[in-house]
Design brief:
Layout (H helix, E strand, L loop, with lengths): L2 H16 L2 E3 L3 E7 L2 E6 L10 E3 L11 E6 L5 H42 L3 H24 L1 H4 L3 H13 L1 H4 L2 H8 L1 E5 L13 H17 L6 H18 L3
Parallel strand pairs: 5-6
Antiparallel strand pairs: 1-4, 2-3, 2-5
Helix pairs in contact: 1-2, 2-3, 2-7, 3-5, 5-7, 8-9
Length: 244
């Protein structure tokens, strides 16, 4: 392979790798669509170093994922989960302008620049790279100006901006990185109350039961966490027997 082809492949590979998440037991990702919670993932079914990897759709950087820590015990019930869902939607609204700019960066550095390299169009490659750099700077400035709404300050803000400016393929994932910096905690059995659109309640409960069952198997049976997870599973099984 020519150096240009290798560089083109590297740009795409870095962009995809940078979007990856590695979820520990008790963590989940909420997929979003147009500012709404649209899906739940506990990662792929295999583990790497005790974590489940998950790579989101590389063609949708404008729909960032939200990071969730599900707890084994309830604290507030469905009302608290509904409040968290409202906070998530407000957070997505604050991230949306950054996502729009970052998506253009992703198209430039993940599609235009690699194709320009593959077909030997160096002026187009340079133009796409410079435009991506300018848009990355604009997106970073917008992120800094919205730091209060995004609840992103200090070292996390600095490191997020630095990565987007230094690594242009990572700039395409800026909205994903910003959205994932904040994490929400919700009791496992209350997750359906977050309001996932287009997902039947039975399907969501089945996903939760599988994830909680896998988490319980790695815990000592005499531990408090094992007992709490068992209680959450009993609640989900009881809800499954009730009509939706």
């Amino acid at each position: 392979m020519s150096p240009e082809t290798l560089l083109a492949l590297a740009l795409v590979a870095v962009y995809v790798a940078d979007s990856a998440h590695f979820l520990a037991i008790g963590e989940a990702l909420i997929r979003t669509r147009s500012g709404r919670t649209a899906g739940l993932s506990f990662g792929w079914p295999f583990e790497l170093a005790g974590r489940r990897p998950f790579i989101p759709n590389p063609l949708t950087p404008f729909w960032p994922e939200l990071r969730l820590v599900w707890t084994p015990s309830s604290a507030g019930g469905a009302g608290a989960a509904e409040a968290v869902g409202a906070e998530m939607r407000a957070h997505l609204a604050a991230v949306r302008p950054v996502a729009c700019i970052a998506s253009v960066c992703a198209a430039l550095i993940g599609v235009v620049a690699p194709l320009a390299l593959a077909f030997g169009r160096e002026p187009l490659f340079v133009a796409a790279t410079l435009l991506c750099l300018a848009l990355s700077a604009a997106a970073c400035a917008l992120t800094a100006s919205r730091r209060k709404e995004l609840r992103l300050t200090g070292l996390p803000l600095f490191s997020t901006i630095l990565v987007a400016l230094v690594c242009l393929p990572c700039a395409g994932n800026l909205a994903r990185s910003v959205a994932a910096q904040r994490r929400w905690s919700v009791a496992a059995a209350e997750l359906p109350a977050l309001g996932f659109e287009g997902i039947p309640a039975a399907t969501l409960r089945a996903q939760l039961q599988e994830a909680l069952g896998a988490a319980r198997r790695v815990l000592p049976e005499d531990s408090a966490a094992h007992s709490a997870l068992s209680e959450q599973l009993r609640r989900l099984e009881g809800e499954a027997r009730e009509p939706d």
